[in-house]
Amino acid sequence: MRAIVLRTRDDNVREKVLVPDWPDPPTPHTNQVKIKTLYSGITNGTEGNQLHKGNYAPGDRLLPMPTGYQTVGRVIETGPDTRSLRVDDLIFVGKSTGGHLEYIVVAEDELLIKLPNGISQSEAAIYGMAAVALNTIRNAAPKKGETVLVVGAGCVGQVAAQFAALQGARVTICDVDDRRLDIARQVGAVEQALNVAGDAWSAHIADESFDAVLDFAGVPGMEEQLILAMKTGGQVLFIAGRDRVSYPFNLAQRRLITVKQNSHFYVDDLENLARLHSLGRIDLTSIVQDVVPAEEAERIYDTLRDRPNDLLGTVFSW
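^ Zinc-binding alcohol dehydrogenase, sequence as received from the core. Prediction below:
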């Protein structure tokens, strides 16, 4: 079967390419289902980390291997103990071992949901990133009228800004890319969209201005600035992958801050995301910028590795 796999080139640079002859999955048994992939979404942060041999990338000895956790597909076969899913059901699979594969076999009680009728299948292919955003906002639990700073206007940050606004928060988003900030302005969930490139952070982000700071960017060495931006008693959530977090203890102690490290997402996040998306409460149309055939994988991943800001939501059609 076809699969997009991560591998290392002869020059020791990593790439992701479509291969035609990856081994087929086994026949489903017990409560497993087999799905034929219709769309799969790139997870920009995770897959970019893998391309750059980052802190949570698989080692070279494990390659080549398929990676990804955003798949929309149709059930084509069920195991004998399957109860909740049927042939022809349309589902989203967030299981981390099942991504960018033409066929996937997965247990029906894994990290997946049946999709509502009428949902955009290509937009649902970024439900993994969108569910991380929802899980973050549920963790932060902003109250009506509170000020929230979203750092990073990539896919997850864009959706988090929308969910925070749905809670009644007053949202500011910042980034170093004007194109991404323009998208946030067009969606209309934020009160401010600020370019903080160069020295502009200190000009735009005043000390003690925000009840919550949500850091999706993961820029090394930014922890002190994030804490300075928080009001006394505020909270900071670290979401993007990073090696370590470091900040002056006395700085944080004086502000009585709460530090949280956000997790992945759960079935409940996916179910609520799908419900709100189907009701038109969340805009994913503006975030899915490219829907391309799986055959273009090498070009897309070369861009993600070398010019990551050129991509936002990217989905492969199978």
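The first strand starts at residue 3 and ends at 8.
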